[in-house]
């Protein structure tokens, strides 16, 4: 299949690389010479001309920032969208808006995360159409996929999109705690990452509630319970719940603002 990636930045580049590795022919677009050179160095075709990329592809991925979308879409003849399959990875831009702008196209939304750069994204997909299977395959090349209702995209953005930042923050806390207890930062960082990988493997293997694993390692009057008491006193779990709720509310608010702005800008440009 021939795939166009409109906007070959962080996420776009990961998708270009993944699509190439699955044997697809890929054309990536960008504005700067640097972006185009990066796409070419991966072995894909590169162009500034979005129309050329769309016209020659069956599947089109839109991976520009939402604020650049009105300008990008205005430079494309509306007829070009007819019969194409389009997947938008833009945060917040709703299917209904995309369908209104790209009339005649089969439209999907995808919400990958930054882990797509290492082939480990958990990507939410939503939308309906004949090429659902191909869309799924494309995103499986950068990790795992979940088909969800569009209403869940905001909480997905908070949990899985912002999740790597929240986990990085926790990792830093664990490392600093070890440094404060006398371990070198380098050793602590490496140990924390290995411990996390092992914990994930363990949780996946047991498939039960995460608290079963917690209780397995909690000896009476031991080390773990001493640490857990602090977590309890400092309301760590409550803070995590509020973190996701706040990020989810923010994703919904930003999505609404972005979506309305795009609709307004597109109608002004007509
Ligand atoms: N980063 C994430 O973790 C993440 C996660 C989920 C979803 N997303 C979504 O993915 C999209 C891209 O995010 P990103 O982080 O990859 O952004 P990014 O690195 O800034 O990439 C955006 C790319 O779009 C290109 N571009 C801008 N206007 C263009 C135009 N008119 N024609 C062709 N290319 C154009 C830019 O090219 P130049 O640099 O050459 O100008 C840049 O390479 C966003 O909509 C975001 O909401 C991102």
UniProtKB/TrEMBL annotation:
Residues given in the record as NADPH binding sites: 50
InterPro entries linked to this entry: 6-PGluconate_DH-like_C_sf, NAD(P)-bd_dom_sf, P5C_Rdtase_cat_N, P5CR-like_CS, P5CR_dimer, Pyrroline-COOH_reductase
Catalyzed chemical reaction(s): L-proline + NAD(+) = (S)-1-pyrroline-5-carboxylate + NADH + 2 H(+); L-proline + NADP(+) = (S)-1-pyrroline-5-carboxylate + NADPH + 2 H(+)
GO biological process: L-proline biosynthetic process
Enzyme class, spelled out: oxidoreductase
Family matches, as NCBIfam families: proC
Task of the protein: Catalyzes the reduction of 1-pyrroline-5-carboxylate (PCA) to L-proline.
Protein name: Pyrroline-5-carboxylate reductase
């Amino acid at each position: 299949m021939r795939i166009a990636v409109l906007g070959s930045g962080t996420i776009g580049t990961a998708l270009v690389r993944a699509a190439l590795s699955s044997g697809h022919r890929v054309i990536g677009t960008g504005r700067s010479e640097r972006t185009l050179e990066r796409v070419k160095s991966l072995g894909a075709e590169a162009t500034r001309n979005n129309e050329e990329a769309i016209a020659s592809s069956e599947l089109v991925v839109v991976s520009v920032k939402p604020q650049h979308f009105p300008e990008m879409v205005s430079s494309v003849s509306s007829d070009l969208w007819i019969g194409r399959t389009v997947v938008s990875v833009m945060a917040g831009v709703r299917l209904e808006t995309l369908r209104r702008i790209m009339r005649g196209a089969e439209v999907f939304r995808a919400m990958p995360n930054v882990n797509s750069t290492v082939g480990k994204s958990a990507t939410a997909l939503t939308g309906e159409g004949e090429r659902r299977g191909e869309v799924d395959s494309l995103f499986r090349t950068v990790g795992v996929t979940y088909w969800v209702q569009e209403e869940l995209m905001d909480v997905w953005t908070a949990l899985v999109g912002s999740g790597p930042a929240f986990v990085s923050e926790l990792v830093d806390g664990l490392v600093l705690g070890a440094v404060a207890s006398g371990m070198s930062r380098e050793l602590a960082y490496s140990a924390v990452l290995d411990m996390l990988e092992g914990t994930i493997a363990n949780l996946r293997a047991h498939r039960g509630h995460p608290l079963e694993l917690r209780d397995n390692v909690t000896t009476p009057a031991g080390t773990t319970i001493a640490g857990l008491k602090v977590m309890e006193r400092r309301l760590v779990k409550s803070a995590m719940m509020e973190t996701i709720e706040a990020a989810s509310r923010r994703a919904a608010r930003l999505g609404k603002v972005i979506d309305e702005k795009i609709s307004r800008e597109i109608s002004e440009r007509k």
